[in-house]
Amino acid sequence: MYENIKGLLKNPRWLLMRKLARFHSGININNYFLRSRFKNYKEPAKDERDSLFPELDIDEIVKQLKVNGFYLGLNLPKNIVAEIIDFAYSHPCYGHRKPWLGFYYHQKEQIKLKLGKKFVLASYFNTALHCPAIQKLRNDPVLLAISTKYLETQPVIQGNELWWSFTSQASNSEKKRAFQMFHYDIDDYNFLKFFFYLTDVDETSGAHICIRGSHNKKKFTHILFHKHETDKDIIDYYGKEQLVTICGKAGFGFVEDTLCFHKGTTPTAQDRLILQIEFATTDYKMQNDLKSPSVLKLLLSEE
């Protein structure tokens, strides 16, 4: 109901896409018309000198994406990692992505005492406007080339997001809210997401898990009823051997078609900071992190 109301009020075209893009037939029909519009489009020549990832094999990455739904091994330079972490510590994040629930990372325990509860997740707004490193990633020619080849058309940036997953003993409802139960995304008919860990991540600190090949294979009930699924349901259908748990040091990155089933695990040892940059065929203005400064409110004064 929330999705329907949100779509009708903000962007009916986005809502229609959300209904159709879960079906392969809907994707194929859209692709036919989309690619006919761009039949004369040529991939831009990538200037590797301007990329943070000059050594990547784009053809191999796209090949693995089409088969597995993901590719591991995009590593950020240390100076870029440091710049984004500095941004995260020096700017407020917002509990559960609510613009009136702002606080600085070092205030999280004070917020817990003030509100009598602890946030499972907190995101940042306007990141590319205030963090040059994130803006540089959005414009990286190799990331753009990967997206172009995979999407087979001229991509646009849907948006980016930087967020904390906090250590907790989360309930099922809290896990759903923080995307810590298996689900798949419907952000467009075709889209691609790049993820970068900004903290060290292992199985106790928020590892991302995806299901190999599930962007191409789902039960009809998974398609018809787009909802969060239990670990048991996913394992029973796909098999435990298809679960891929992604760990890595700060700066480790990967690219994923999140039409795959995936989830973040609940951190129990330390908080996780992660950056996501998304490319798609259409920007519905629904996935970005842009907020007017006038609506952003802090729960505590800056210290």
| Strand residues, percent | 15-25%
Helical element count? 12
CATH-assigned homologous superfamily? q2cbj1_9rhob like domain
Which fold name is given in CATH as the topology?
Answer: Jelly Rolls
Spatial order of the strands forming the largest sheet = 1-9-6-11-5-4-2-3
Order of helices and strands: HHHHEHEEHEHHHEHEEHHEEEE
- Poorly predicted ranges (pLDDT <50, ≥5 residues)? none
DSSP helix fraction? 25-40%
Q: Please state the structural category.
A: alpha+beta
The number of strands is 11
- Computed over alpha carbons, the radius of gyration is 19 Å
Silhouette? globular
Termini separation = 40 Å
The CATH class label is Mainly Beta
